[in-house]
């Protein structure tokens, strides 16, 4: 048995999608994200985009997690109300986990928001986190740190100096 062939083929990852689009639907679905989606599709890129018609609940979350894990690249469109959605924040946390564990490429796009607001959770991102912090659900409180870390990591992919007080 040739081990070099075995190890080579076992390390090869077959991606189901080229790109996973993460975005806040009410902010960008009918404009920027739709244009981006169709431009990528027209270029022959296999893109996963969630659908308003998808069922809600655990099965949808599982389907989205599988789509995230099966995507070579994640494009995250940060918009004004992105951080208001626990769904978006959970999705981002999963994307950043896949970046670390699977080598997924992540490209942040800042749609009418300042990248430093994403990094530092200020502006509309800070307001959204104040609302999340006031929620009584323990699961949300446990996720706050995970969400903050994911936002900071993603924004720093755009500019590594963001959030660095020494610069």
From TrEMBL:
Start and end residues of each TIR domain: 15-148
A single BP term in Gene Ontology: signal transduction
Alphabetical keyword list: NAD
UniProt xrefs under Pfam families: TIR
NAD found in the keyword field: yes
Entry coiled-coil feature ranges: none
UniProt xrefs under PANTHER family: DISEASE RESISTANCE PROTEIN (TIR-NBS-LRR CLASS) (PTHR32009:SF160), TMV RESISTANCE PROTEIN N-LIKE (PTHR32009)
Protein name: TIR domain-containing protein
Native source organism of the sequence: Malus baccata
């Amino acid at each position: 048995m040739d081990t070099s062939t075995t190890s080579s083929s076992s390390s090869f990852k077959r991606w189901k999608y080229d790109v996973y689009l993460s975005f806040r639907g009410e902010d960008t679905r009918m404009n920027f994200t739709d244009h981006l989606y169709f431009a990528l599709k027209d270029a022959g890129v296999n893109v996963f985009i969630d659908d308003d018609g998808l069922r809600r609940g655990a099965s949808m979350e599982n389907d989205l997690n599988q789509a995230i894990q099966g995507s070579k690249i994640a494009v995250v469109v940060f918009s004004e109300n992105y951080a208001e959605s626990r769904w978006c924040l959970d999705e981002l946390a999963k994307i950043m986990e896949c970046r670390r564990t699977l080598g997924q490429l992540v490209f942040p796009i800042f749609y009418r928001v300042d990248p430093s607001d994403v990094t530092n959770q200020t502006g509309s991102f800070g307001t959204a986190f104040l609302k999340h912090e006031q929620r009584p659900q323990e699961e949300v409180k446990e996720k706050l740190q995970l969400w903050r870390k994911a936002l900071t990591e993603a924004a720093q992919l755009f500019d590594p100096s963001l959030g660095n007080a020494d610069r």
